[in-house]
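check this:
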Amino acid sequence: MKTPRILSIDYDPAVLSSRNAILERAGYAVVPVSNAEEFCDLLRRENFDLALLGSSLSLPEKKTICTEVKQHTPNVWVIACCRGTEVMEAVQEKDLVDAVVDPFDGGPTALIQAVSILLLFQQYCEDLKQLRKAPESVPPKWKRTEAS
């Protein structure tokens, strides 16, 4: 199984570094960026499983980036790290954001759980696609014989 790749953005280098270290210890490959232009450029050029938007980005910036992600790479999950009242506003953007995490309230555990759940769901969806592509791999229905 391949290591999931996460594209992570935050304007605060200390937060970016510590958050990414937590994710890397959990087994994820994290590519850090500190500006939105580089983030969107990398997202278009490389394959990522998940996009992580840091808490130092304003909500309008997060919306702009989410729109870009969903238009160009709709298979990439988006997690927005938000604080305080911004959490409820971000939750209302359900068409853009796949998960919202308050890293100051839930801590590293909440972030790792959100990442894990979305990536497990992604794997589940990919497995279903594979099953649908190969119907011959599904065993025939059990048939009762005359002797049984």
About this structure: The longest strand covers residues 5-9. The chain has one domain: 5-137.
